[in-house]
Design a protein that fits this description.
Blueprint lengths: L1 H35 L3 E5 L7 E2 L13 E4 L16 E2 L2 H7 L2 E4 L1 E17 L4 E5 L4 E6 L7 E2 L4 E6 L2 H20 L6 H25 L3 H10 L6 E4 L4 E6 L6 E2 L4 E6 L3 E8 L12 E5 L6 E6 L5 E3 L4 E9 L10 E17 L4 E2 L4 E8 L2 E13 L2 E6 L6 E5 L1 H14 L6 E3 L6 E3 H6 L3 E4 L2 E4 L3 H9 L15 E3 L4 E3 L41 H5 L42
Antiparallel strand pairs: 1-2, 1-3, 4-23, 5-25, 6-15, 6-20, 7-14, 8-10, 8-13, 9-12, 10-11, 12-14, 15-19, 16-17, 16-20, 17-19, 18-19, 20-24, 21-22, 22-23, 23-24, 26-27, 28-29, 30-31
Helix pairs in contact: 3-4
Length: 580
């Protein structure tokens, strides 16, 4: 008796221990489940909730992923309703990869616009010395290309026989004038007339020598010394820099050859390359700052009134600046930096690192909810500093990824590739799933109505869309498909029936209405065979409403008279018929 009691007590203790352990395990699992997330009861088809499954999978009707049903009665929303490339990242991963978010907002500010420029000589201060006659270079000065020369400095000398007659004529006129001036004072009036004539001749001879290439300094020296000079000097016309030197001792030259080119660089031009809308900031008369890289020197330049010129090689507009060059620090073809402050109006702007530019489109990642990021194409405008203007694609208040964008983009690309969407995507109006437009068009799962194209993930969604009131009016499907005059929808199919029931008009099928109490013969009873998607078409309801009005009621006919036949209906597309 005591032994039985001991056994009973032991069994009772074991049962209590088991129940206690089960209760503790249940509480622990419930707490862990609550901490980890909501408990999933089962999965349902998002299009047909009556279909359930105890594990995740793909719905057999529309191909959409099954949605989880949680213990609290809520149904989880699948990410398939989000645009392709949308990614979900856990908070732990966001912290590991260093993702930072920022709010899109409008702001006004200023920036320092910095542009490249190149030094050019002032065309109004450039002097070209050409040969006016044929001759030979007799001597050359110490100047070379790049040397600074002063006004009236002798650059070179040359000889030409064409100066001989003009020089002798000048000396003869001078000798005659001296003889007249040394005559008797009695012939005063006659002397005055001769002197006037000599002065006109002297002017003519001086002009002849000047046109041949002799400088005013050398002509004045001939008049003073009354001696002819065989070697003609080439004088510098101004203070400046020798840009071109095409002479050497003993060189023969012909009329029109360029001998020297000299530029006065005390005042120069700066040609600034501007891109896009940057030229709008370079208003005529505006003062800008010019700096020489590597040297602590700045200059103040003024924008010229001359309109910018387009350079086809660099595809830029070249804006001309004018500035003084004290000390000749700036030389032709030197590169400089041009800076000017720009005040910007209020605009929608984001950090530059938030925009991913692939060359064909610009993308940012928008936070839809905690850890859920949607790729969105945007149109950008001006760039200033480390920010860029957003013209379209974003709204103030939205949060975007500004750091770690490349890692989010790589995850988005992998998810897009896994979903099978390789091109532009559109939302299925029936099931709300994003589908690849090219693949849907190739499969014939699209409709066009009123200038709008609808794409579907499957033919089932396409038929459901039609049942819910879609009324396409233009051609869809593969080329060459026969039009179907359906009583419900006027459209061309893509090898599919869209809920239109076949209404044959030939006798023996539905040529007459059955009498009361009699059963109408089916196409199968008449020996009709069907191909294509007849089985799916038989599952669609008959058209109702105005379009089905001729079939709704028939007036009572006197006994013995046949019932009138309804108007013939065109056959359903995609079905072939054969009659016995």
């Amino acid at each position: 008796m005591n032994r039985r009691l001991v056994i009973l007590v032991i069994l009772l203790l074991m049962g209590v221990s088991f129940l206690a352990g089960a209760w503790i395990s249940y509480r622990s699992s419930g707490t862990a489940s609550t901490a980890a997330g909501r408990k999933i009861l089962h999965y349902v088809d998002p299009m047909h909730p009556s279909y359930t499954s105890d594990k995740p999978g793909i719905a057999p009707d529309c191909g959409m992923p099954l949605e989880p049903v949680y213990a609290d009665g809520t149904v989880g929303k699948s990410d398939t309703a989000l645009p392709p490339g949308t990614v979900r990242v856990s908070p732990e991963k966001l912290q590991i990869i260093g993702v930072k978010l920022a709010t899109v907002e409008k702001s006004a500010g200023s920036q320092l616009l910095r542009l490249p420029g190149r030094v050019a000589v002032d065309e109004m201060r450039t002097y070209v010395i050409n040969a006016t006659i044929d001759g030979w270079i007799t001597s050359v000065g110490s100047n070379t290309t790049g040397s600074f020369v002063r006004k009236n400095e002798v650059l070179a000398t040359f000889y030409s026989s064409e100066f001989l007659s003009a020089g002798q004529a000048l000396l003869y006129a001078l000798t005659s004038m001296d003889r007249v001036q040394g005559g008797s004072p009695a012939a005063n009036q006659q002397q005055k007339d001769q002197m006037q004539q000599f002065n006109l001749s002297l002017k003519q001879y001086r002009d002849s020598l000047r046109n041949l290439g002799m400088g005013d300094r050398q002509i004045a020296e001939m008049i003073k010394t009354r001696k002819y000079t065989e070697n003609i000097d080439i004088d510098s016309p101004a203070n400046g820099l020798v840009l071109v030197r095409n002479v050497s001792p003993g060189q023969r030259f012909e009329r029109g050859k360029e001998l020297y080119r000299i530029a006065d660089i005390s005042r120069i031009w700066i040609l600034v390359d501007t891109y896009g809308a940057e030229v709008d900031q370079m208003k005529p008369g505006r003062l800008v700052t010019v700096s020489l890289p590597g040297r602590n020197r700045t200059f103040t330049a003024r924008v010229s009134k001359v309109p910018p010129l387009f350079d086809a090689a660099s595809r830029t507009l070249k804006v001309r600046l004018e500035l003084d060059n004290p000390g000749y620090i700036l030389r032709p073809d030197m590169f400089v930096d041009v800076e000017l402050p720009v005040s910007l109006p209020e605009m929608l702007a984001v950090p530059s690192e938030a925009v991913l530019d692939s060359g064909l489109k610009k993308t940012v990642f928008v936070e839809k909810s905690a850890g859920l990021f949607e790729p969105r194409e945007v149109e950008t405008g001006r760039s200033f500093g480390n920010r860029v203007e957003i013209v379209s694609g974003l709204k103030p208040g939205e949060r975007i990824v500004v750091s770690g964008t490349f890692l989010i983009d790589s995850e988005s690309r992998m998810k897009t590739a896994a979903s099978g969407i390789t091109g532009p995507a559109s939302l299925d109006p029936s099931c709300g799933m994003y589908v690849d437009e090219a693949k849907a068009r190739a499969a014939g799962n699209f409709l066009e109505s009123g200038g709008t194209t609808y794409y579907f993930c499957s033919d089932t969604c396409k038929r459901d869309f039609l049942k819910k009131g879609g009324k396409p009016s233009s051609t869809t499907g593969s080329p060459g498909a026969k039009p179907t005059a359906a009583p419900m929808h006027d459209m061309h199919g893509a090898g599919h029936d869209h809920g239109a029931m076949e209404m044959p008009a030939n006798k023996g099928s539905m040529g007459t209405m059955p009498a009361a109490g009699k059963k109408a013969k089916s196409p199968a009873d008449e020996g009709m065979t069907h191909t294509g998607s007849m089985q799916e078409s038989m599952q669609m309801p008959m058209p109702m409403g105005k379009e089905a009005a001729p079939m709704q009621s028939m007036p009572a006919m006197p006994a013995g008279k046949p019932a009138p036949q309804p108007p013939p209906m065109p056959p359903m597309q995609g079905a072939e018929h054969s009659h016995d």
